[in-house]
Amino acid sequence: MNGKEDIRPISYIKANAAEVLDQVNESRRPVYVTQNGEARAVLLDTESYEKLKNAVGLLKLLTQGEEDIAKGKVLSQEEFFLSMDRN
C-alpha cells in the first residue's frame, strides 16, 4: 500500500472514476475504497484479479490434497498409473 494514493473515499471514486481506474491499471496496486472512514471494498486491475483467483484455486487444491493425505486417501504411483490404464 502506498499511503493516500491507495486509499480513497467512495466520494472521490464517484467523482474521479476514470482517473482511479487509470491509476489501478498503470500501477497494478489495489485501491482501497472507504465509506464513513471504514474500508469497504478493493479495486484491482483485471490481470491482478485473475492472478489472485488462480492462486486461490491452487491453494484450494493443495488444501484438498493435504486433507486427502491426512485421511489416508492416497495411491501409490503404481496403483495410480494402473487405474489410469484401465480408464
From TrEMBL:
Coiled-coil region: none
Tell me the InterPro entries matching this sequence. Answer: Antitoxin_Phd/YefM (IPR006442), phD/YefM_antitoxin (IPR051405), YefM-like_sf (IPR036165)
Summary of the function given for this chain in its UniProt record: Antitoxin component of a type II toxin-antitoxin (TA) system.
So what family is this one in? Belongs to the phD/YefM antitoxin family.
Q: NCBIfam families from the xrefs?
A: phd_fam
Quote the protein name from its UniProt record.
Answer: Antitoxin
